[in-house]
Amino acid sequence: MSGRDDPEKYLRWRVAVGDLTGRRRWPLAMLGSRLTELPEFPTPARIPAQGGSEPAPDTGWSAPDPGCSPPETGWAAEAGWAADTGWSEESGRSAADGTAGPEWSSGVEPPPGADRAGPAWHRIFVGRMAVAARSVTWLRHLLDHPVTLARVRRVTVVVQDWEIPQRGWSGRLGPVPHLLAQRVVLPRHDRGRVVVELELRWSVPLRSVLVAVLPLLTPIRPLPSPGSPEVTAQDVFPGWLGAGPQLAVVAGELPDSSAVRPYDLVLRADDRAPQVTGDGSGAMAYRSRLTVDRLGVPDTDGDGRTGPVLLDAEHAVPVGRYGPFGPDAPRAELTFAPGPDGGSWRIRGPAGLDCRGRLDRPWLPERTWSALAEVGVLDCRSVPGWRPRAEAALLLHLVLAGVLVHAPGLPPSCRAQLADEVVALLCAPLPDRPAGRPDPQTDLDWEARAVRQRRAVLRRHARGFALPRLAAATFPGLGALPSVSALLVTRRLEHVVDAVRIVAAQTYPELEIVLCLHGVRLPAGLRRWLADCGRPLEIVEVPARQSFGEAMVAATARARGTLVTKFDDDDTYGPEHVWDLVLARHHSGATLVGKAAEFVYLGALDTTVRRDAGAPESFAQVVAGGTILVGRGDLADVGGWRPVPRSVDRGLLDRVRRAGGLVYRTHPLGYVYQRRPAGHTWDPGLEYFLRDGGAQWAGLPRHAEFGTAVRAGGTFTNADRIESGNRHVTT
User: Of the chain's two ends, which shows fewer C-beta atoms within 10 Å, N or C?
Assistant: First the structure.
């Protein structure tokens, strides 16, 4: 990298990000440097060229609008000198206290010798760097700032307000090149201040250090794939890129290689070819390039549509946010206002709710997440279209925050930034509001609408799913979704047809079925029917003397998917069930994900009850065994399935937690746990499921989310399932 040639060298540097409340703790060695605090997030979309030969384009970052008071403050960075003697505390200083020098570019006084058009951060070497962040979310946002290109050897990262995702979870430091020493100090209780100190033999970019520190503090688990390209952003900082082993940001020229190309997909702010060292041919430097901006991909084709807005779903989805739902849920209103910075937004609602922000920072800070916790519906009667990409990005972030967003007046310029599926769900009329007493079916319609919005945003706009699709023309074999194997172990032939039919009807495309027959054999007619089920099917037979756990082991051994999920032969699953699990694993970073047995069908009463089974969209101790999804590699790492005759699911959950992994419970829609009159190894009685119950339905809930809506020949009922299975079993 050209940044290694004659770098600007500094002994001390410190960076503060977020609104650091109270007294700030810095290493005593850093006290000689003053702290300049900026009021707004200053990320340029493009890194200025060294020497100022090329001005940075307009990125939308500018001075704050006096009429808009954003909920969070931003960044600080300044060089300084002192002796290395230990730790101390000092209160924060802002730009208003007179400590800040003349502003440049993003509002920071440049170090001596740096060009006034902007610092060439990749040419700066810092002997000791201290980073203070208010929260893990703010530490993630620091990845989108060019200061992370500075090369460092000793780094101290302080997170002021950290909370463990779940008791028993064990974070792990990611790989750091040339690591000599590390020190981690976590709070004694579940929440508090975290200090991470690292010392390296040779300098590396600060971004590499932060990417390694994040898995210590928050779960990060990339989508499993048999192959993926090396993605590198050159001279651009996409806000959606996130952190990952194959995701990097560089400035300056790309190094060439005669052995293997260093980069497969290069992201740039313009359509020019990347600069490459050497003779300029760059034959081995990269394979393909893609023009991007801070919000996504601005252009993809010439049909009038722009490229999609992209999101880093790993930190755009708040944990624990689900509901309220229904026509009587609290409502808020989203409005927009013009301003010298390109516009601002405001959300006003019940109980004095008043959230504000700027369009040049469309992601939602933590305070806005908290303020929207009790809002069920967000009305946006008019979207102005002043900055369509930023306005579209804001709507997407609001959907991921768990709010049902209704934007019927979405202008064409904003529609062009969004997937058709998302546009339809944002603009369609809200479900009916029937008069009279509350109707559980109506509340279910409103809940399903919010779930569908978030599902559509994740699979169409999340970087992990959208970027491979955009690069599919160059890498057609690498754009596929993670493959999933559905494990179906059964002793009851009368349930095979319907269970296989439910799995085959899943909308997730990369899905195979592993049918394990535990002590039974297939009739010829049933075998012929299975051959035409429409999905890749693997049939495994194990003798009855083997335990259920051993049968799960045999089925998993024959599975070819990078993810495996368990289906029970008599439960009810909606068509989007597998998609829900894959999306939950992506944005939560959990080792194992599933759904709760919240909807329970009681066969003795022919009634479905909705019970309180724990908070959805949150880390949990247990999930329903018939909904477990886990990576094959993760399953092997914790020891796989236990060879026990019962409680196989509980055994796996215990192993995951003992290994320091996380269990995540996504929303409950799309799964109904079936309780037959007899035949369960665990039988607490009907009173257990009726106690403190909520809504009830005669039979199964008739809803598309459960795959039980009206179909040809009538509604789908439990009796239909038994009858359809028996016809093939007796053939």
Answer: C
